[in-house]
Structures are given as structure tokens and as C-alpha cells.
Amino acid sequence: MLKKLHWLMKGNYLSMWEPKQVLVLDFDDMEALDWDRNGLNFLIYWKAKTPNLKVNIFAIPGRMTPEFIKLLEPYKDWLQLCVHGWKHNDNFEALKWDEYLANLYLEKAEQMGFEKVFRAPGWQITYPQPYNESPDPTKPVNSDPQLVYRVLQQRGYICADQGYNASKRPEGLQVYCTCNPLMIHGHVEDINVSDPTGRNGMRQIEVEHGVPWTNESVFRFITELTIEELRCTCQK
Fold it and tell me: Is residue 48 assigned to a domain?
């Protein structure tokens, strides 16, 4: 699987590591097919140290197994599975979805027990946006930029999204945006970028930054956020 696209942006909360009193902690890329991509060693270690920990895991449904999902069932009170593409074989997967495929993969994820919260692989969900700036006719969203957003809205999803896409979203879509001050975002695997603040793999957070919470912190699921807490403050 290709590495994800990563960039730091002023005005968002993707790479701030100071402890928060209230936070929404999320991690991308959990899967069952590679031994080093499940993150359970850190999750259980952190849960043992911080009993009130809750975490939103953007897992890859097409790379999960029934056995692994069953293994996670006892943790449902503190670990929610959110949808991160389908197989995430590259960072542009969702750009290649038409309406049929978007509904197909989301329906499958729902049947597997995933929450109705979605983040596109590599944040690639519309057109134009960084890394999808040329008019490529093989990508359905390039002729219909709201295609995936619209399917998510129709199915009642919250969409985790970058602030620079604010003007492209349909009105009324519920969004967990990078402008949200509660957001702490990371990855199961190491993220090796030149800016040290962007190194947000689980191991890197533990070893290089220190965890951005304390035992007194309050953790929230994305699905628990109110409409006001989900309000995007990015300029439209």
C-alpha cells in the first residue's frame, strides 16, 4: 500500500502536540492483513495508563477480517471504527468512485459494523484540491466535485475533511474538519516527513512528542460531537 499524502497547513490542528483538556483522538490506517498495521499494542498500552481513553480508528474495511473485527468487539465502549476508503491501495481511491461504487463500499462497511464517519485516503475527495489539480476524466469527481460528499450526506455520514475543501462541500454536510480545535490526528504507522511536527505515527507520538493528553483529559467520539462542535469555521 502506498504511503499517504501528508502536508502541514497553518490554521489547522493536525500537528499540535500540547496536551488538551478535551480532545477527539483519531488514527488512520488500521488493518488486519499486515502485522504492523493494527496499532493494538499502543492502544491497549495507552488505555491501561489512561482508563478514560476513547479513540476513533479510521480503519480500511477491505483490509479487515471478520475475525479481527470480532476481536475488537470488547473494546467498543472506547474504540470506534470509522471508514477510511475501501482498500486504500493508493491515495486516490475515492476519486475513482462513481455513485454506485461509493454506495457499494459504504454499505459494505456499515454491514461490517463501522460507524458512519468517513475520511478519504490521502484526504483525496474532490476537485480541485492539492494533489488532484489536473482535469483527469478518469476520476468521476473531477466532473462532479461533490459526488462523494453527496453520497456521504445522503447516507447520514460525518465527513472528516481538510479545511481547504470547505467551499466545495454541499450545504448541510456534517464535517469533522481540520479546523476543529478538538482534533488530534495520527496514524497507526510511522509517518516519516521532514517537519518533525508532522511525524504522527503512534510510535512517534509516544516516543518523540509525548501523548497530547493527561489522565484528566476528556475524550470524545466523533459520533458524540454536537452540531455546534462539528461546525466548520473555515472560510467558504
Answer: yes
Side chain identity at residue 60, one-letter code = I
Q: What is the CATH number of the domain that holds 164?
A: 3.20.20
Peptide bond preceding 181: is omega within 30 degrees of 0, i.e. cis? no
Distance (Å, whole) CA 226 – CA 212: 22
At residue 48, the 3 state secondary structure works out as: helix
Question: How far is residue 48's CA from residue 26's CA, in Å, rounded to a whole number?
Answer: 18
Torsion of CA 123, 129, 134, 138, to 10 degrees: 40
Set of cell numbers at residue 69: 473485527
**CB under 8 A, 24+ apart: contacts of 43-49:** 43/75, 43/79, 43/202, 46/211, 47/78, 49/215
User: Is there a contact between 146 and 170 (Cβ–Cβ < 8 Å)?
Assistant: yes
The verdict on residue 112 lying in a domain is: yes
CA distance 160 to 131: 18
- Report how far residue 134's alpha carbon sits from residue 190's, in angstroms, rounded to the nearest whole number: 30
Residue type, 79: L
Q: Would residue 232 count as lying in a domain?
A: no
Specify if 1 maps to a domain: no
pLDDT tens digit sequence for 13-58 = 666 899 999 999 999 999 999 999 999 999 999 999 999 999 999 9
DSSP secondary structure letter of residue 201: B
Tens of pLDDT, residues 189-198: 999 999 999 9
